[in-house]
Amino acid sequence: MDVILEGIGITRSFGGLRALSNVNIVVAQGEIFGLIGPNGAGKSTLLNVLCGVSPPNHGKVLFKKRDITGQKPHSICRLGISRVLQTPRPFQSMTVLENVAVGAVFGGHGRLKGISAVNQAESTLRFMNLHEKKDFQVGSLTLQEKKLVEMARALASNPEVLLIDEVMSGLNPTEIEEAMRLVRRVRDMLGVTVVWIEHVMRAIMGVAERVMALNYGQVIALGSPVQVAQDEKVIEAYLGKGMGATGTGR
Ligand SMILES: Nc1ncnc2c1ncn2[C@@H]1O[C@H](COP(=O)(O)OP(=O)(O)OP(=O)(O)O)[C@@H](O)[C@H]1O
Ligand SMILES: [Mg+2]
Q: Would the pTM count as exceeding 0.90?
């Protein structure tokens, strides 16, 4: 396995609360890696540690074997790791295209300026079937469209790794299907490695190749979706009896 991103012995505390205790995560180049667990398990904190938003108290983060622990988010983004936020925070009064062009300018190792940032934003919007909305103000969009803009913003920075935090909550079943196809296309067509937190079990179990489950800041299971869905500790902590791999989650 060709490792692209690694967290080794990650511990992160907030005051007296240990959000992550000695967590190890190894992500292979080109895989779709799922992260599950109950509310407060430490999933978002782990993504924050990986992308530099929340440096670990102990442990190391390696990107392509290079130690990036403690680097600032914009530096890490420039190296090639972009993050899609749990709650989209687009510039509401700007257009879709402008929002995505901001991602192209500020992110990414292929840092772009002016016209080329707009070109990059346009091609990202085409890829996401959002191009016809490019001149709409983001404030006028539906929740799903806002989430797609947030993902487009991250993708426009031309990342090698995309960290996605719960893009599917609040979406209807058809929108979830579309979002699942999109995550697959991001990996298959753009070659981007994906680390993806999701509560919608059907989606993550259907798309991720490996899944890691966290509970109280510790890894309780790691394996294929089927292995993890059948894991006693995961069922007890998170899935509940009788849900298994086909459950729809929350
Ligand atoms: N900035 C912060 N300051 C203080 N406590 C925090 C902070 N961020 C997270 N926590 C705490 O750390 C723990 C893990 O939170 P985290 O957001 O990582 O969980 P999560 O698995 O993403 O949960 P959810 O599924 O609800 O998004 C929680 O107890 C949370 O309250
Ligand atoms: Mg979270």
A: yes
Ligand 1 and 21: CB distance under 6 A: no
Closest ligand 1 atom to Cα of 199: 25
Q: Is 45 in the pocket of ligand 1 (CB under 6 A)?
A: yes
| Domain residue extents for the chain | 3-80+160-246, 91-148
pLDDT in tens, 92-104: 788 999 999 988 8
* 60-to-32, 212, 215 alpha-carbon distances in Å: 22, 18, 20
CATH class for the region spanning 3-80+160-246: alpha beta
CA end-to-end distance (rounded Å), the chain: 32
Q: Exposed, middle or buried, 135 (CB in 10 Å: 0-12/13-18/19+)?
A: exposed
Tokens of 174: 């058809």
